[in-house]
Amino acid sequence: MKEKMSWATVADAVDYKGFPADKSKTGGWVSAALILVIEICERLSTMGIAVNLVTYLGGTMHLPTAESANVVTDFMGTSFLLCLLGGFLADSFLGRYMTITIFAAIQALGTCMLAISTWLPQLRPPRCNPAASTMGCQRANGLQMGVLYLSLYLIALGTGGLKSSISGFGTDQFDDKDEREKAQKSSFFHRFFFFISTGTLFAVTVLVYIQDEVGRSWAYAICSVSMMVAILLFLSGTKRYRYKKTSGSPIVLILQVVVAATKNRKLELPVDPSQLFEDDSVGSTKIPHTDQFRCLDKAAIMVEGDEDMKRMDGMMNPWRLCRVTRVEEVKMMVRLLPVWATTIMFWTTYAQMITFSVKQATTMNRKIGTFQIPAGSLTVFFVGAILITLGFYDRMVVPFWNKWKGKPGFTDLQKIGIGLALSTIGMAIAAFVEMKRLSVARSVGTVARHADSTLPMSVFVLIPQFFFVGAGEGIIYTGQLDFFITRSPKGMKTISTGLFLTTLALGFFVSSFLVSILKSVTSTGKDGQGWLADNINNGRLDCFYGLLAALCLINLVAYLVCAARVKPVQAYKDAEEMDEIGGGEKC
């Protein structure tokens, strides 16, 4: 009977009642599919709003172009930054199931409020006089912008909580000790990214079309209703899910090392590292001591009286004394930072694809016959580039590389480098295309003075910049995820994923910072518009793109220097296997 029980249950998972999870009744693809539905709706809402928000802020709320772009990038940056909060709450208090439920409801509330704010005339400023310039339009007042901001940041909060737990809860539905389920878990990541791309593709095509041709309130209402339906479907699987107990937040573990090292900062490190505190209990795994970041080693210095400071359970107080392995795990996280810092710039260029590139599209000929493509839908080429790149990589590059080099494709560091290089090329192309667009605007003279005028230039010339940056994302996203997960300590995978997502957040914030600085510095001409004019036909967006291309090139060189100094991470070892391990070098 005992053998039957151990075979039929999952060792480290429980069901909704807290009993060992029955493998035949819980988990698997049915449970994972219900979780993926939430992810589709999250992408539908977030990207459906983000890719076309800049046109709403400028055309309806009458915000200047640069400020509109910053609102979008701040919204997206906050969404990814809040993943850290969501991960902390899931690991420390709520668990992944409750985190997903609560934050999905918050996102549904945010999209509902956004639908209402775009529907009620009282929450929008009056329309401009067709004969007046954009500068003569009445800007949205404090109340109108306040309701809009509240809606957007509720959505950002919901997105952060969801993204921190969706992938983890999905993988919880598969048993690593079952070979069949382990294989299914591997394919889950591919399907997860496919669902993200599917949701984004639907958002930038169908949803953007509804926003422009039917009404934004209808489009946002669709997002809200779809999220509510997804929540109901998600809750319907409550009895089928496998739940894993939280083991505490990795953030707390890192803070313990920092606090302990700070308390011991005046102590001298022993000459022999073996004198540092370590858990020598049978069966414990260890990471050999390294000489890098020796200031953190002070967290493992034992002094007289430490034995008397044990807690009731017999363990040392981790805020006073940490084992060497815990210190080395924190060092492993620190070693990720050089690569982390040099990947932020990619997401700064990504931000331009959903802000200024969309603004460019609004000034160009977007007709195919009698059908006019919505400006926000141009990002479909961006999503298409991601899907094409991933398909080409899986079907062509991996088999070729395996046959030639005997390896299953590029390494994580090579993928990141390729992504950074592609984004650099994309920004350089964007600068040249904008130079051409501005020359056309100057040639038509008075027509280009109106922000709503259409230039005699096809919008499809923007495809190359969308394609190169999109292809870069397809490569760099998987490379970053692989890098941060495989090179982080086994107990800190969640925070390492959060660290990866902060590169997206900071990339958007850097974009906002650059736009604000350039708007201030370059607005010294006779019209005071500068590079980032409200009417981009009167600005120098090509100079902005050129600056980004130069910054990307400098960043790529810095990344190559850091990547060249990264060494393979070795596995945890038992006491008798302790040899010196080489970790990634700090840049």
Automatic annotation (TrEMBL):
Keywords tagged on the record: Membrane, Transmembrane, Transmembrane helix
Membrane topology qualifier: Multi-pass membrane protein
InterPro entries assigned to the protein according to its UniProt record, in alphabetical order: MFS_trans_sf, POT_fam, PTR2_symporter_CS
A GO BP entry: oligopeptide transport
Record-linked Gene3D superfamilies: MFS general substrate transporter like domains
Keyword Transmembrane: yes
Alphabetical list of PROSITE patterns matching this protein: PTR2_1 (PS01022)
Keyword Nucleotide-binding included in the entry's annotation: no
Chain segments annotated as transmembrane: 29-51, 71-90, 97-120, 148-171, 192-211, 217-235, 333-353, 373-393, 413-433, 453-477, 498-518, 544-564
MF (Gene Ontology): transmembrane transporter activity
GO CC terms, sorted: membrane
Primary location class: membrane
Subcellular location: Membrane
Pfam assignment, any one: PTR2
Sequence similarity: Belongs to the major facilitator superfamily. Proton-dependent oligopeptide transporter (POT/PTR) (TC 2.A.17) family.
PANTHER family named among the record's database cross-references: OLIGOPEPTIDE TRANSPORTER-RELATED
Protein's UniProt name: Nitrate transporter 1.4
Organism encoding this protein: Acorus gramineus (Dwarf sweet flag)
Top-level taxonomy: Eukaryota, Viridiplantae, Streptophyta, Embryophyta, Tracheophyta
